[in-house]
Write a structure and sequence with these properties.
Layout: H1 2-23, H2 51-65, E1 74-75, E2 82-83, H3 90-109, H4 126-130, H5 136-143, H6 146-157
């Protein structure tokens, strides 16, 4: 009789554990409050991007161009902090254009749908041209063969 009560009690506890694990699984404590935050002034990146993904993407841009955040983002004159929503710097507009350009190149030139291993496709990235420099032409000047440098210099003269 005592064993039967213990078995029933354990079965009920197991059942409740399973039920509660499914109902609470959407509210994982990551240390950050879950919100439906809307980013300010995102024009080419999705509004649904997570904070971690956005920061990782921006760090990637920093590394690819060898710059810091202040290269594209203006600071607020009153608070002396970065104003990430501001469009005061022309470099931010250039960056948006370059993001759209690389997206278009990758979409038009790589066969994602028919690839057996799309994760192995080497896509065009900022690093491919910039190589840690603000200007991709500086990277070209540093690494290009002599024939390409000559052709580039001739084209620049025209």
């Amino acid at each position: 009789m005592k064993t039967k009560k213990i078995t029933i009690t354990l079965a009920i506890l197991a059942f409740l554990t399973v039920v509660f694990s499914f109902t609470n699984s959407r509210n994982i404590d990551t240390g950050k409050e879950l919100t439906t935050f809307q980013w300010k002034n995102l024009k080419v990146l999705p509004q649904t991007i997570s904070e971690d993904s956005l920061k990782g993407l921006m760090r990637g841009y920093n590394e690819a161009l060898g710059v810091k955040c202040s290269y594209c983002h203006a600071s607020d004159a009153t608070t002396k902090k970065m104003d990430f929503a501001s469009d005061d710097k022309k470099e931010k507009g250039f960056a948006r254009h370059m993001i759209l350009m690389t997206r278009e190149i990758n979409a038009k030139n790589f066969n994602w749908e028919n690839s057996k291993n799309p994760e192995l496709i080497n896509v065009v990235t900022c690093t491919m041209c910039h190589r840690g420099n603000e200007s991709p032409t500086k990277s070209l000047d540093d690494t290009a063969p002599l024939e390409i440098k000559s052709a580039t210099q001739e084209a620049a003269k025209k």
